[in-house]
Amino acid sequence: LVTGASGLVGQGIRRVADEAKDSFIWLSSKDGDLRKMEDCRKIFSKYKPTHVIHLAAFVGGLFKNMKYPVEFWNHNISMNNNVLQCAYEFKVRKVISCLSTCIFPDKTSYPIDETMVHDGPPHHSNEAYAYAKRMVDVTNRAYHAQYGCEFTSVIPTNVYGPHDNYNLDDSHVIPGLIHKCYLAKKYKRPFECWGSGSPL
Fold first, then answer.
1. Mind telling me the catalytic residues?
2. Theoretical Cys-Cys bridge with 52: which of 91, 95, 121, 195, CB 3.0 to 4.6 Å?
3. Distance of CA 54 to the CA centre of its chain
4. Strand-by-strand arrangement of the 94-98 sheet
5. Start-end of H helices in 96-172
6. Residues 6+ apart with CB under 8 A from 125
7. How many C-alpha atoms does 137 have within 13 Å on its Cβ side?
8. Domain spanning 2-165 has what CATH number?
């Protein structure tokens, strides 16, 4: 069972999985609202998955994160808690959740790796989303400690490509820059980036 299957990472997994012999169930928000436990339980009851790849998230770029921190926290915490609780209740053998690069501490040494996730606060610009994603790691370990669940997570870094959000108002940096570059070339105008170049 793949949540968030219509997004960037979900579509990438789907392209690879189509070559595999395993059967996948591809979910999008049209199949139910994972923020609601009732919807989540109905999905798990209907499909009875043995494995879950949890990609569903309320996402957006820098400005959307700064404008709606409460929604980023609440929507993601609800989705993640509901999916992991249902995975436990329905005896799912393995869950792999997708985290985000923004969970790493803002002030850190490089190179970074997954052992450093909780070594300091994330950047203030997206801390609600970052902490909600960090809690997946904490929740995974709690379910393993208490129930022996095989819940884990991955942290893809700077992914972009087909099926990404290229909307200039709320995209991430790379797809936003790609779209701006495309428009600059198409309309033969200068390629301009947002901001003054000073860090936030």
1. 129
2. 95
3. 8
4. 2-3, 51-54, 94-98, 151-154
5. 127-147
6. 62, 65, 66, 200
7. 16
8. 3.40.50.720
Neighbours of 109 (CB within 10 A): 8
Distance of CA 106 to the CA centre of its chain: 19
Q: What share of the chain is helix, strand, coil (3-state, %, to 5)?
A: 50, 10, 45
- Single out the residue of 88, 85, 115 nearest to residue 103, CA to CA: 115
* Cα gap 13→2, rounded to integer Å: 9
Contact criterion met (CB below 8 Å) for 170 and 60: yes
The one-letter amino acid at 132: A
Q: Which residues pair with 94 in a beta bridge?
A: 51
d(CA 144, CA 82): 16
Question: Which structure tokens are listed for 104?
Answer: 């790493």
Confidence bin at 154 (pLDDT 50/70/90):
very high
What percent of the chain is predicted at pLDDT more than 90? Answer: 64
CB 58 within 8 A of CB 36: no
- Say how far residue 91 (Cα) sits from the centre of its chain: 23
Please report, for the chain, the start and end positions of each structural domain, with discontinuous segments joined by +.
2-165
The tokens describing 48, both together, are 């009875």
Residue 92: pLDDT band (50, 70, 90) is very high
Mean pLDDT of 158-179: 75
Q: How far apart are CA 50 and CA 4, in angstroms?
A: 17
Label the pairing between strands 51-54 and 94-98.
Answer: parallel
